[in-house]
Amino acid sequence: MADSRSSVQSPCAACKLLRRRCVIDCIFAPYFPADQTLMFSSVHKIFGASNVSKMLQELPENKRWDAVRSLVYEANARIEDPVYGCVGVIFLLQQEVVRLQTQLMQAQAEIMRLQVQGWKPGMITSGIRKLDNFHEEPGNTCFTKEVIHQSIDTASGVDMLFR
Ligand SMILES: [Zn+2]
């Protein structure tokens, strides 16, 4: 009878890369199957197999898949950008959030200004045309317009309530 430490037929990506025997209860086997050597090599290069093994062992089993996914993401980002890693991506997205919040506030201010000038739901089309010309900078224009259109829908909905 085979004991739980006996090696499995096909070693996982980690054991293949580390040139060691892959046991039945290998900590890496469920997350790094044999065909995922590249995925494991990234994680090993940045965090070290021993640290990854420790990290996974300290987590409950139902959290390990998410941990592996984030470790792989972080490792790949660090390989791609040795200075900032995934912090570079986070920083860019935070800047994008601030930029979009500013645009949203400008759009809301514009809606309020139009309403003060007597803007009515029947005039939505001209309002949209006016706001479409409001943000013409490249990148995320669709999202920006979508936000503006949603704001207009909300504003006209509110307007309908008070008629
Ligand atoms: Zn293994």
Automatic annotation (TrEMBL):
NAD among keywords: no
Organism whose genome encodes this protein: Ceratopteris richardii
Protein name, UniProt field: LOB domain-containing protein
Sequence ranges assigned to domain LOB in this UniProt record: 10-111
Keyword annotations: Coiled coil
Entry similarity comment: Belongs to the LOB domain-containing protein family.
Coiled coil: 90-117
Database matches in InterPro entries: LOB
